């Protein structure tokens, strides 16, 4: 299943910063070998070194670097340089620079900030991509193309505004349809000419939700279009090498799911901030696990950790040193969630620029004896051993999924009401994912377009915006025997944020057997109580807050009710049989203790298998990568101190071969990898 | 005294959002009757439906709606559509869009944001107003014109800047006079040509107080001028129907008192945010009471509650559901303070746009069985009964006034010193008003231009900016036997924020018999003590903070002195006889306990009558609407729980006829209306 | 050493604000004499009164004022008016107005905000300066020129951008050199034409540290160049009178050290905010003492307190009245630190403008009986007496210095890592200065360009950016017998913020005998412990936080080590012998208790003399001004209450002649001045 010759261990490499120091370039290769680096990303941001003047290409330095790396057994991930433009390009063709939402053209500077519509920028990019692919595309060192860098942001220039109008014409066909979906009868916004339409400009209209949503979709589509043009140049010039781009997880403004079919492998840059405090480490681990699962679930295949820091980042508030053990743990966490690589930003620390205090494998001292260098060496060795043991032949195959949709996320963030100080969609989704993490249950995190066929249990919180077909898909899933958990504030609007008329949750009143009457929003610090009735083996009472729906049962059975306020006695949790399955509906945002207890109950009811047959202590999780012959179970301890895990079955250490009968000990920040051989 | 055929119960109605759903439009009329709605506002923001292309008027849909409403006995308040312009208008004539203080022209979007100077916008507005008036002005359904919507904001475009210069020429006559009043010798700002003068631009000069004040005055005047042009078109085309515009209370940047003679009735939109907490409910009730009194005092006549929410608003941080009882209480609070209507925004919830989660009488389910619908029905029934009982023949007639001046408010907000973290003018005024509220004493809240003749007691806090004649007016009031309370930081600047030279409080040292030497500003958390001497039946000691004036008595008698710091022993409260009256002067910002105790003392001394003969429990107030034959007393309980009021006299329930001898019980959030028949 | 005929006691005087009130102008002279004012600053911001139309000069009013002052024995500091331009100038020549970092041209308004490059502004300034110098330069009243006012800020207009490019050409000579130092290979920023380079525009590149540093240097240089042009006009027209400009201490964006050779005397405006709380008063006193020392150390000569408030300022959050005693204390604090003047802003309170609530010697009442007026009188009397006693013949001569470099300050503020929530350079420097203040040890605060020859002890914290030669200078200082204290995060980058390669602290590993391996940044609220070993007479343990360096000793001896975390046992404080001196290195930010104890130890070890032979109570300090015949010791009590100081030697009061044998009593906010006669 690994699309590459081996599990990759590598780093971003910027030889163009050291062209005046051939001694350092020479020393780099030896140090890479010493560190166990077998793969580097080359050419990210190198445009001004590759094309110092318009049309003048200076590739020889790169050729020498690639050759010298290849001779040393180091592979190359070759980047196109479009992530940052040279100064001459910006000066000569200002159209390549972005225009802000207040219609100001940017000056030269920064990176990842070109206009994605500009024909000039596309042409200049096409030219240099073509030249690069021609020169290096067939080099045996090159195992992957890395297109541009961390796409993101938006541009409001006249070209982008015109492109947006064309996009709208394609989507809606007629102004009549657009006026209806954008609900322009509100505030006299009806358009009578396509040219009257603008993106959500800061100085114009930012509160027409359908318009804002469409703009976000357009930005993703236009960025994807730019990416695809680059891919086209590469594939037509140098076919046969896989292509990707490095993503940035949940911080992105793009809907990465749209890239699903255009990347050969998902690659992303993960930068957890460890050691903000020991309890925060566990939160950070859970957030990072969630991000890995989100990124893996785009294609539901192994992915690449394209960037991570070997030590600290410099852009965080505080650059806390990684404690001994954390570098290994953090690196293998990615692998446990499905990564077939551990790559770093960057190989050698820069002397200048705003990232000069970002850690690198080799720091400004230039020596190999540093703690970071040794940490990196250790990861290299362990990866190589796991590769030999067959880890590359495995993948993560969850039986559960959490539904997390980027368009729904956009819509909920933009929503004006019922709780403008925080609808907390992402936090809510993550609280369910956290329960799976604590139980050691692998989970996918999928959008509304993904098929649910392979799951036993699906948690679908806050389905506010229902993309076409999702209600049907959930019904089919449940009828076929699945266990479904939905929540308050579902079935509210259609794809264009236009409210459904009639009974709500729209299209799902039959599925859940309930109907929403009202929804109460609570201030921070205000609470209600959820009283669980005898039908569930949970605690008698939990706290709810933020959003409390007032539902009435129309077929469903109540499992819990509110304990306070004028809606005391209204159902707070219900269950409804639907075909062979069951649909649960949670009416209010519940405290995490409930989430954990209830998810645990659902896992058991749905017959979902946990990664390891044991109760996991606080701060510990386990992930399974399954293969044809055997499974690898990564047991990770995010506590700074030693824990012991009481086992319900014996396990063997995949690396050392040691056997654990009743107890598995883990030192602080330790990760152990267990082996599960298929019997029969 | 009611200018309309009945107490109005109505809502904003936007049939233009449902033109594609004739079934819904048909159903609306029946639902309105079911809800007891007898009046709707029509046409607010309907411009793009009324004039979809320049000069093409499509009024038939509106004609049908008006006819059908009229047939069902429902009156119409007809709006001019100038509150939001169509897209075609903005595209073709960009001058109608506002320019910000940093000189950026807005893009199309939003509402209530046109340039009020633009000749094009005035002409386009005139045209459609004329057409509307011609077509509908004589329709028997139409009982009131509603001009535009919630005027506000400011525009810095070249047209407005030129108009500002003309306004200044009219005000000052010569540059010499302007230079003197604006004190341009400071920082070399002397103007030698009118064209050198700009409004307070963000990128220019925002700290010349006289300039900023004049700009705010100009903005009010220019907005008023725009409004008057609309009124002129309507009145000349369709005479005989009263005209108003809907105001927004204290949030406005306009001095609404300037509209006094140009509106036939004051109408305003009141949106209190209930249920932030039970103690906060009482604060909210007091703030809302203050706002009602401010708005009523513009004309000192009954007003209209033009908008209110039947449930929640969507633009607040948290959309908390109205608890049972609160809708009735909140609606009748307006009536108690002098409103002859309860109108809602809006009749039917929108499907899209940024207000789609704002409550409406009919929500997106389209049903009449909802809690909100039933709450609205109940208000309708009660209003109708009160109307029959003669409430429309009564009005609020206070014997006390609090002086609150919009220009003084502007000046104090802009002031650089002595306490830039908060002069708290409005809070101070409200603390005195709160004391009246808690005592059940009706109070007007008037500006410096209003006559004080009808009052026994006037509280005039922080008369920082003295508009011409106010000192004389206060002296006449006192000499004629009135009781006056003034405070620290009075008599500081003239109308243009130019300091008075010589003794301060300027023009009032004789009135109060004191003279200010210095003023100490305190940090938050710093306090002094006010020690009350034996002449007053108050507590021996209160806390003061924020601003402590160091005065010396020149004729006044001290009633309290400071207890701490180097000005210990200086007078903190004084009294001075002046003609037949008394002028009290409070030297420091006192804690609320003092305000309550002292106002209570003054009410007694001045012989001011309270609304109900009883001590009111915490969170309860009473308002009297007085008529020729009888008075109605609204006793309102803003506590969630039951209270009992010990009565000093018997009362009869105005609705049920029940008699209360010694005790009046009120359930949580209940309002009871007592009747007082004139004997003799 | 005093360059002026006497210790100056004066105020800013704006007769142009009162030209319409000759009665007031007449009264002013008498009031000045009554107040003991012997010197006024004239003409600041008077341009529009001096040149009301282009080329038309109206100087007669000023001539009359100067004559009348001179007749009354009052000297004049004559300002050039370039601090604020007339409206006609801004309207006719918009190029004189600044352009912001987002490239928006300012509108007319404010002050101290002209473009310092504009040829027009320079020419207009030259013309009026010439006329002023011609008319008044030889007047015997004029004892000092005051050029412009509080220079500061920056301008991004095309003229400034072009000048910046020229400045860069002069600095770097070639683009190749600039590209190397700015490290433009990072993010493809390589420049191939000078015209591609911009300042750090908000919409462009603000994170290239070398570029930002160069821009700040350019801004200082260009401002200085503007100042020098004014000086040239004055000196060539009216030679013989000293010239200065008024600075604003540490709030400035300019590196004032660059003005060292261009001002004849350092003058600055000091505005401490007293009475935020009694403990805060001591902090304020220490901060103010630091600022006085910084300003004095620019030239290491007596300076002028050019502005201070006689009462409150109006621009602070809260205008707290000065408590009795504080005005004298605050004024003499400046004198104690080396000022030969006490000057006020301003003489007479303005009637309008944004500073109308700033205190003045004469307030809007126009009377002389006010508390402030009497406070000012008292300072005048005391200054005159001290002048007669010979204070003008003394100066401050410290044996210690704290190194505080403006360029290092810029670089640390701009740094992205390792602790973006606060590197706290200035706070760290001030904590060492505070220890000297508490010990009563006079200290200079010098930049990296200043010679260290005259000191016994130098504290040099956080030498992050090493300007050329500083490492050598520190080594020579130490080898020659000096005691040096350096700290963590030193020797990191060169003058252009480019990291040193190899061992760090670069160029100082031999000096300190240590080498840095890593640096750990801590979140707020996280701590480590520093365990002191037996070699030092300090407490056994102190707390460290924020930044903890992991060093290894290469020659140094550890004096303390870390007590926690994975770097427990690493050295936290070391000492290294170097020639005849000793170099201490502190590896972590230590709590103030350590700073105080350790500085106290170093003072003793280095044989540094304290101002007074006594232990000083909390909140009390002492400064010595030394003369040929005798020394004056200013003992200042910043507590509101009385303290008694136990003396180790007898002293005589310099003013009253009283003797203090064992105990020196000081009332709250009192300052006593002791005399020390040289024996021998």
Please explain how this structure is put together.
The structure is a homotrimer of 680-residue chains. Chain A is of the alpha/beta class and 680 residues long. Chain A folds into three domains: 8-155 and 227-391, Alpha-Beta Barrel (TIM Barrel), CATH 3.20.20; 400-606, Class I glutamine amidotransferase (GATase) domain (Rossmann fold, 3-Layer(aba) Sandwich), CATH 3.40.50.880; 620-677, Golgi alpha-mannosidase II (Immunoglobulin-like, Sandwich). The first copy, chain A, is built from 16 helices and 28 strands. In chain A, the strands form five sheets. In chain A, strands 11, 12, 13, 14, 15, 16, 17, 18, 19, 20 and 21 form an eleven-stranded mixed sheet that branches. A six-stranded parallel sheet of chain A has the order 5-4-3-2-1-9. The first copy, chain A, has a six-stranded antiparallel sheet with strand order 10-22-23-28-25-26. In chain A, helix 5 (119-136) packs parallel to helix 8. The two termini of chain A are 22 Å apart. The mean pLDDT of chain A is 97. At the A-B interface, strand 15 of A face helix 2 and helix 4 of B.
